Amino acid sequence: MSSSYIHEVKLPPHYDKNKQYPVIFALHGMGSDERDMLQLMEPLSSNFIIIAIRGPLVQGGGYAYFHIKSIGNPIRELYDASVQGLQHLILELSAQYAIDPARRYIVGFSQGAIMAMTLSLIMGDAIKGIVAMSGYIPQFVKDEYTLQPSPNLSALISHGDQDHLFPLHLGEDNAAFFRSHTDHVTYMPYRGGHTVTPELYVKLQHFLRTDAQVTAEDTKGMNE
């Protein structure tokens, strides 16, 4: 594999390479690592392939996908490089494992949410859905990237009303922006800060399981 991104893969029990499975690409927040996201996605590991990806840059005791000039202002060249690298990795891994191309999901927190939203906006039908927790969409992505999200994209966007890093209006802006591209947006503001609350944890699991099941049924119906 040509990608230099460190990642961990958890396959469902009784994995069969001749079947097709939905996949979650899990992206961590700044200063964290892939193990945190792998643990967060554990309840879904019976039905999904889970791939947790480490950011390529050292950040404190953990890692990052990009560094920033200030809050909300990523260093553009580092940001662009991670977007390109993650795109390539998603496609490489999709060819390596028994992944259903119609059920590829990205789940991200903070920096991971920022990456998840960006990737879903530029990768078209390659991404079926995202869970974006406590992030924002950089202005240069909206203005300068070629945006081609799938009209069938499903998005769960969540944000805490006491987030000390990114104020609540950014979550509202994220939801509004995605609603201009797809009719399948769920926005979940919640009581809390820059964290994953128990309520959100339950919601994201239900969202992913339901969307993956509905998509599988729709795909089967079209093929019959």
TrEMBL record:
Which Gene3D superfamilies does the record associate with it?
alpha/beta hydrolase (3.40.50.1820)
- List the InterPro entries hit by this protein, alphabetically: AB_hydrolase_fold, LYPA1-2/EST-like, PLipase/COase/thioEstase
The Phospholipase/carboxylesterase/thioesterase domain covers 18-210
Is Secreted set as a keyword in this record? no
Which key words are in the record?
Hydrolase
A Pfam family hit: Abhydrolase_2
Similarity comment: family membership = Belongs to the AB hydrolase superfamily. AB hydrolase 2 family.
Q: What is this protein called?
A: Phospholipase
